[in-house]
Design brief:
Blueprint: H1 2-6, E1 27-33, E2 39-45, E3 53-55, E4 62-65, H2 71-77, H3 83-90, H4 93-109
Antiparallel strand pairs: 1-2, 1-4, 3-4
The structure holds zinc ion (ZN).
Zinc ion binds near residues 34, 36, 38 and 56.
Length: about 120
């Protein structure tokens, strides 16, 4: 595979590792504050998924991203909820049964709207 890819290129005349044309990823600086009050900045790529916590480089405690002060409380009081539980918050079993019956009726009668769900 690698052999095939390199065949025909003029090694030496042009470097394949030239930085010309390389687009550097845009970056963002994210502030974290640890329980000891240390504030530090971590640089992430602009499209990176920024974590809510980061280990403090000074005291190794878990620092929390600035702007998510309620992170700890939220995590401890609210266990991970399933989609089903969230659905049950909004609908009762009776409502779901009605919705299901309606959908089944639509599918069975072939009255599905074009482009609809
Ligand atoms: Zn610290």
């Amino acid at each position: 595979m690698a052999d095939r890819a390199l065949r025909g290129t003029h090694m030496g005349s042009t470097s394949l590792e030239s930085e010309e044309g390389v687009v550097f990823v845009e970056r963002q600086n994210v502030d974290f504050t640890c329980p000891s009050g240390h504030t530090f900045e971590i640089t992430f790529a602009i499209d990176a998924e920024v974590p809510d916590t980061w280990e403090c480089p000074l005291c190794s405690k878990v620092a929390i991203r600035n702007g998510v002060e309620d992170f700890q409380e939220e995590k401890s009081t609210k266990p991970q909820r399933t989609h089903w539980e969230q659905l049950m918050d909004r609908r009762t079993m009776e409502q779901l049964q009605i919705l299901l019956d309606e959908r089944l009726e639509v599918y069975r009668s072939g009255r599905r709207r074009p482009g609809g769900y």
